């Protein structure tokens, strides 16, 4: 049995998916996950497909040391961004897995949104690469664990008019 980091309030109205020790970069996956947090499922899937096709960009807000500035960032409140295709494909697969789980639970997939998405670092695989003059350097990858929780959205309650508030 897999242990999840988060337990939803209403388990009957939510579904989840998890990937452990995935061979994708932690930093790219973390930024991609933060970009889709809170989105509706349909929009998140379309966004990730656009990232793979380089039509939309993933803003890098925390790990900004490497990525450069791009013109697609004009719409967002950040300056640095990338198109992490491998991370987008992995998260897209997890969203499809969670969607299949939701259909099995007979949830309305049009009302689903990304309630929570967590990315944690996994243990590094340590290798070595041989350099010139008899030296050896570390050659490590930075895998990660990804956990996705989808939940059904609540019905939108219309704001009461000011005349209804005045009558009270």
UniProtKB/TrEMBL annotation:
Per its record, how is this protein called by name?
A: 60S ribosomal protein L17
Q: Which Gene3D superfamilies is this protein grouped with? A: Ribosomal protein L22/L17 (3.90.470.10)
Q: Name one Pfam family in it.
A: Ribosomal_L22
Classification of source organism: Eukaryota, Apusozoa, Apusomonadida, Apusomonadidae, Thecamonas
- Key words of the record: Ribonucleoprotein, Ribosomal protein
The protein's matches in PROSITE patterns, at most eight in alphabetical order, are given as:
RIBOSOMAL_L22 (PS00464)
Task: Please state which protein family the record places this protein in.
Answer: Belongs to the universal ribosomal protein uL22 family.
Q: Please name the GO terms of the biological process aspect recorded for this protein, alphabetically.
A: cytoplasmic translation
Tell me a Gene Ontology molecular-function term this record carries: structural constituent of ribosome
Task: Name the SUPFAM superfamilies on file.
Answer: Ribosomal protein L22
What do the Gene Ontology cellular component annotations say? cytosolic large ribosomal subunit
Organism, as annotated: Thecamonas trahens ATCC 50062
Asked whether the UniProt record includes Metal-binding among its keywords, one would answer: no
Q: Which NCBIfam families match?
A: uL22_arch_euk (TIGR01038)
């Amino acid at each position: 049995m897999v242990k999840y980091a988060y337990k939803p309030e209403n388990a009957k109205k939510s579904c989840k998916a998890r990937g452990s020790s995935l061979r994708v970069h932690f930093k790219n996956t973390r930024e991609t996950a933060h970009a889709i947090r809170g989105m509706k499922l349909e929009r998140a899937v379309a966004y990730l497909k656009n990232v793979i096709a380089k039509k939309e960009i993933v803003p890098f807000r925390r790990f900004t040391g490497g990525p450069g500035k791009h013109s697609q960032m004009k719409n967002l409140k950040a300056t640095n961004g990338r198109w992490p295709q491998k991370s987008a494909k992995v998260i897209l697969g997890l969203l499809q897995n969670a969607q299949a789980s939701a259909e099995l639970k007979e949830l309305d997939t049009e009302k689903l949104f990304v309630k929570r998405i967590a990315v944690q670092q996994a243990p590094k695989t340590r290798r070595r690469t041989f350099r010139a003059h008899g030296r050896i350097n570390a050659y490590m990858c930075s895998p990660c664990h990804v956990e996705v929780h989808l939940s059904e959205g609540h019905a939108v309650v219309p704001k009461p008019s000011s005349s209804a508030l005045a009558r009270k």
